Amino acid sequence: MQDDPKQQEILRRKQFSFRLNVFFFIVFVVFSVLIVRLAVLQFVEGPTIVSAVNKKGERSIPIAPIRGNIYDANGYPIAYSTSTQSIYYNIQPSIKGGKKSAEQATEMAEKLTKVFEEYGDADKIMTKEDIIRNMDLEFRKNIMSTPRRIKKDLTNEELAYIMENQSDFVGVTLLEESVRNYDESSIAVQLVGYLKKYSGVRTTSDFYKEKLSIEDPLYQYIEEEEVGLDGIEYMYQDILRGTNGLKKYPVNNQGVITGDISITNPTKGSDLYLTIDTEVQLHTEKSIMSHLEKIRNSSNRSERAPYAVTGYAVAMEVETGKVISMASMPDYDPNIWAGGSITQEVYDNHEYVLNNGTIRPVYGPYKTVEERNQHPGSIVPMGSTIKPLTVLIGLNEGFFTPESWYNDKGRFAYGKKGYERYIRNSGGHAYGLTDGARAIEKSSNTFMAEWIGNKLYMRGTVDGK
C-alpha cells in the first residue's frame, strides 16, 4: 500500500522546517560567538593590542642633555652651558596624486628662508640651498623618520613667528638645546679641556667606542652632541653629561610620522667644583707671560733667554695639598672649539698650546727636532725644590743630626779612582761648615750629594756598612 501523497508532502515540509530551524540556530550561535569575541577583543584585550601596535609603530629619538657646569673653588663659572632654540624638520610623506616629499620640503625651505631673512640675525642668514642641504633629502645622514636640524640659536623673533604660525609650518619642530661657553679670561684652559662632536670621535677614541654598545635610549650618545676630549671635560664626561630626553612619535610601516610628537625633557648633568682659585690662576698666568717677556729681552747675560716661549707653574696649598693654580702658558681661547670642531688652519696655529704642559711633556713651537732638542720640555727634574725633602731623608736615615756639621768645599768627587765625576755648587761656592738648615739656605749641592745621596748609594756595601 502506498503512502498518502498528502502525508508525504506534510512530512517533507516538516523535515525542511526542521533543517531550516537547525540552520538558523547554528547561524545564531556562530554570530553570538563572534559578537562575544569582538566584545572581548574591544573591551578586555583591546588596550593590550593597541599598546602592542603602538609600540611597534613608535620611534624614540634621544635628546642630548644640558651639560653640567665647571666652577672654581669660589663658585665662579669657568665653563658653563646655556640653552638655545633649534629648528628641526620632519620629512613629510608623499601625497597620493599630490605633492611629493621633496616638493613639500622645497616649499618649506622657501618659507623658512623668508623667516630667517626677516627675523633672523643678519650675520647668520641661511639661503634656501643651505636649508635644503640640512634637510638631507637624499638620506645620506639619516633615515626618513629622523628629524633634521635646520638651524640652531634662533632669535626670539624667529621663534615667536614660527610659534604663532605653527599651522603654516607642517613638519617643523622647535627644540631647546645646549651650547658650551668658556670664560673670556681663558682660565686654566688646558686643565678644563674642550669638546668635540661625538660623530667625530666615536671611532677614534677607545673611551667613546665603548659608548656605541649602549642600548638604553636614556644613555645613548647622539651623533651631533658635543663630548669632552681633553682635561676635566674628558675625565668627568659621564658625570657632566647627564641623561637624555626622549622624543617619541608614531610612524607607519614606511617610517612616516602619523601622529603627535611627545617630548620628555633631558636631565642636566652634574656640576663640578674645582680647587682652582680664579684670581690666583689668572695672576699665575700673567706672571708667566711677563717673565717670559722679561727673560727674552733681559740685558743680564745669565738671565737672558731669547728663545723662551713657554712656561708652566703649579701652586698648591701646603696644608691641604689642593691645587689652586695650574698654568700652562701661552694658552688659547677655548671658544675656538664652538660647534665641536675647528679648521685645519686654526688647529695648526694652536697645536703647540693645546696640551697641558704641567701634566705631560710639551715643547714650544720649534721648527725642527734638532732645534727642539736644544730646549727643555715642560716636564723637568725638580732640582733644588726637592732639597728640603732630601735633608729630611738624611735625618730620618740617621746619616747626620741637626747638630752635625759638614765641611762644604764647593766640590764633591764620586766614582772609581781615576774615573771620578764631580758635583759642584752653583758658581763653585764653598760654604764651609754647614748644617742641614744652612745646606737648604745655600742650596748646597755637595752636602746633598756626599752626606745623603752617596750614603744612600753606598749603604749595604763594605765601605758603607
Structure description:
This protein has 465 residues and is α+β, with helices and mostly antiparallel strands. Helix content is 37%, strand content 17%. It has 16 helices and 16 strands. Strands 2, 3, 4, 5 and 10 form a five-stranded mixed beta sheet that branches. It has a three-stranded antiparallel beta sheet with strand order 1-8-9. A hairpin with a 5-residue loop joins strand 2 and strand 3. The longest helix has 40 residues. The radius of gyration is 39 Å and the shape is elongated.
What is this structure, in a nutshell?
It contains 16 helices and 16 strands. It is of the alpha+beta class.
Descriptive tags:
3-stranded antiparallel sheet; elongated; 465 residues; 17% strand; 5-stranded mixed sheet; alpha+beta; single chain; 16 helices
Q: Describe the largest sheet.
A: 5 strands, mixed
On the 0-100 scale, what is the average pLDDT?
85
Poorly predicted ranges = none
Could you tell me how far the N terminus lies from the C terminus, measured between alpha carbons in angstroms?
148 Å
Strand residues, percent: 15-25%
The overall strand count is: 16
Task: Produce the secondary structure layout.
Elements: H1 5-44, H2 46-56, E1 58-63, E2 70-71, E3 77-89, H3 101-119, H4 128-135, E4 148-151, H5 156-164, E5 172-182, H6 189-192, E6 195-197, H7 198-201, H8 206-209, E7 226-228, H9 231-235, H10 237-241, E8 245-250, E9 262-264, E10 272-273, H11 278-296, E11 311-316, E12 323-329, H12 344-350, H13 369-372, H14 387-397, E13 406-408, E14 411-414, E15 421-424, E16 432-434, H15 436-442, H16 445-458
Parallel strand pairs: 2-10
Antiparallel strand pairs: 1-8, 2-3, 3-4, 3-5, 6-7, 8-9, 11-12, 13-16, 14-15
